Amino acid sequence: MKIRRKDRKQMSGIGQGKRYGWILAFFLAASLAAGGTGATLLAEESGAGITDDGGTQDAHDELGNMIPEDLGELYAKSAVLMDADSGRVLIAKDGNTMRPMASTTKIMTCILALEEGNLEDVVTASGEAASQPKVHLGMREGEQFVLGDLLYSLMLESHNDSAVAIAEHIAGSVPEFAEKMNAKAKEIGCSDAHFVSPNGLDASDEGGTHSISAVDLAMIMSYCVAKSPKAEEFLKITQTASYSFNDTEGKRSFSCNNHNLFLSMMEGAISGKTGFTGDAGYCYVGALRKDGKTFAVALLACGWPNNKNYKWTDTKKLMAYGLEHYEYRDVWQEPEIADIPVENGIASDGSLSGQSVAKVRLDTEDTELQVLLGDQEEVKISVTEDNTLTAPVAEGELVGTVTYYLGERQLKGYPLVACSDVEEKTVKWYFSKVITYWLDFSACDFLLK
């Protein structure tokens, strides 16, 4: 191709102005960089959080009443069936109403003693402990016992004096132990629980009445049997049919028998605690594990004398419904994820005009997600990514989430992260590009001369 003289002169004119090139290049690079970095797009907010333990959203977000039509009537004024592994409320009747809980309180006393005490500790009975009403062990002031023995007295026979002696040993006093109980309840996730005593006798303090909701009682039982670091010890105690022990001096002997009849009523029953006071009525909290499923049932105000068997009828009905209508299903899906544009980022080909994007990946090694689902329940997946990123972007940077939902309830969330670094277009980078183009253009001018 021929180059006309006029064109050659124009190009030569550029060559004659090279002495100004470095100055022009600097200002051009600065101008480009300023335009590239001046605008920022806010990433779209994601409403989905990321959970690490199977995705337990607060059970209190659930409705207080979730009763299947085919379940039938329940005797209890408040009742809950819970998936003990996830903490999800499956069935609830007035589940969030606070009511007195009687001796079901003692599951909290027991788990605190297991987690904060030493089973070989020696416990000395105070006058306060020895004065507790029936049902009691009959301990005497100054008498000493091994803590581990008293936990069997607490859970099998529901002895009120043992509860007070344990509380005073762990915390120094009943009020201080109640503070620990309330703190533990909050740690577990309870919001409708107020503990005043370690034994559950009807009581009040400046904070209110000793009471709890069925949702929170089921949550505490779920913690005791499935999540506590002392779950194995808790189950061992509450599954024991009978237990005998002596005071530390060997002067008196005691025998305890388990009054949790549910243990022999259904295959898979693993734990439970009964309770009764005049204010609370008959109460029960229990757990069952079968076919890979673990359920907790909590019943409050489940009849008054002479209806002490109502609690067994309700418990069996709820447990049987859970076993029949809920199964684990693998709901894992490979999400559809897209690259994300990166503002002011260097394109992969390194050009000035190339589109800069961040490659995205799911940050997990999971290939399955087992969820306990009812007959008609379906899990949906939501992918939320930032609309735009602003350079620099670091490899592994969080750029979105993949969240699994059951209705409005979040089950599990996984992070989406950038696959690699995306560097920023800085003044230095623009300057180097301009200089490169300038030198290439100058070389062309030299060859044309």
Automatic annotation (TrEMBL):
Physiological role: Removes C-terminal D-alanyl residues from sugar-peptide cell wall precursors.
Protein's UniProt name: serine-type D-Ala-D-Ala carboxypeptidase
Pathway: Cell wall biogenesis; peptidoglycan biosynthesis
Organism: Bariatricus massiliensis
GO molecular function, one term: carboxypeptidase activity
InterPro entries documented for this protein: Beta-lactam/transpept-like (IPR012338), Peniciliin-bd_prot_C_sf (IPR015956), Peptidase_S11 (IPR018044), Peptidase_S11_C (IPR012907), Peptidase_S11_C_sf (IPR037167), Peptidase_S11_N (IPR001967)
Entry's EC annotation: 3.4.16.4
Family in the record: Belongs to the peptidase S11 family.
Domain Peptidase S11 D-alanyl-D-alanine carboxypeptidase A N-terminal: 73-295
Domain Peptidase S11 D-Ala-D-Ala carboxypeptidase A C-terminal stretches: 366-424
Domain of life: Bacteria
Lineage: Bacteria, Bacillati, Bacillota, Clostridia, Lachnospirales
Keyword field: Carboxypeptidase, Cell shape, Cell wall biogenesis/degradation, Hydrolase, Peptidoglycan synthesis, Protease, Signal
Catalytic activity line of the entry: Preferential cleavage: (Ac)2-L-Lys-D-Ala-|-D-Ala. Also transpeptidation of peptidyl-alanyl moieties that are N-acyl substituents of D-alanine
SUPFAM superfamilies: beta-lactamase/transpeptidase-like, Penicillin-binding protein associated domain
